[in-house]
Amino acid sequence: MSTHDNIVLNVSGASKRFGGVQALSDVGIQIQRGQVYGLIGPNGAGKTTFFNVITGLYTPDTGSFSLGGTPYTPQAVHQVAKAGIARTFQNIRLFADMTALENVMVGRHIRTRSGLLGAVFRTPGFNKEEAAIKARALELLDYVGIAKYAEFKARTLSYGDQRRLEIARALATDPQLIALDEPAAGMNATEKVVLRELIDRIRNDGRTILLIEHDVKLVMGLCDRVTVLDYGKQIAEGTPAEVQSNEKVIEAYLGAGHKPH
Ligand SMILES: Nc1ncnc2c1ncn2[C@@H]1O[C@H](COP(=O)(O)OP(=O)(O)OP(=O)(O)O)[C@@H](O)[C@H]1O
């Protein structure tokens, strides 16, 4: 397999403007299969905008996008999910009054044949599929370490466990790429260690991960490659060691006008 075949996400020339703000300016990244790829930058650098663009929440002004070698147009969230990108959000978005298990099952439904109509009419095909979905969802809860909370409502789980539940739900869609938006936000040191182990395990199991994270130590310890954004521009790309010693990066993080993280 050539390096090219191994590229999961290929984005080039992505730009997005909001009124007077150029939130993203000609950003391009290539993520290889099995990598954890980090996206970092000071507040307002454009990280979330980039996530929103590649996942269909925002329509980009320019850019070309391909996933697993197939071009895609990120225009609708459900199309992007079907194409194979699953994401979590900075502010957790679970179905708070559904159980942990049900939350993961919802993620799985986008890959099933019976779909919503089958669920409404409870066809035989649906019932069989439903049992398989449930079994897979339980496996995933176990995988992220929260199987014991399967029947708990999502809102009753601790913050760290809710984040892990979001990851289980993302995995349930069998994504080509998992995009994690600040998964460690609000976590304590112990929870961060557990999260790091989980992300490592997901990578070792052959998945590909794009990560926005403010915790620089976590990013540098976990990521294979990193892109640094600043005012919408890509100011550095490389291994964590290369990026950390880059003058522009040091300036962006330490220079005036930015809050350090
Ligand atoms: N929907 C929007 N409408 C107008 N401006 C927006 C919108 N979304 C983002 N922006 C602007 O685009 C710029 C980039 O914001 P973005 O949220 O992508 O940055 P970020 O790197 O994710 O920041 P943070 O680390 O604070 O989450 C900011 O100036 C922001 O105010």
TrEMBL record:
Q: Does the keyword Nucleotide-binding apply?
A: yes
User: One Pfam family name from the record?
Assistant: BCA_ABC_TP_C
A GO MF annotation of the entry reads: ATP binding
For this UniProt record, the keywords arranged alphabetically read as follows: ATP-binding, Cell membrane, Membrane, Nucleotide-binding, Transport
By its UniProt entry, which SMART domains does this protein fall under?
AAA
Record's InterPro entries?
AAA+_ATPase (IPR003593), ABC_AA/LPS_Transport (IPR051120), ABC_transporter-like_ATP-bd (IPR003439), ABC_transporter-like_CS (IPR017871), BCA_ABC_TP_C (IPR032823), P-loop_NTPase (IPR027417)
Domain ABC transporter, by residue range, is 9-256
Key word Transport present? yes
Q: Known PANTHER family for this protein?
A: AMINO ACID ABC TRANSPORTER ATP-BINDING PROTEIN, CONSERVED COMPONENT OF ABC TRANSPORTER FOR NATURAL AMINO ACIDS-RELATED
Q: What is this protein called?
A: ABC transporter ATP-binding protein
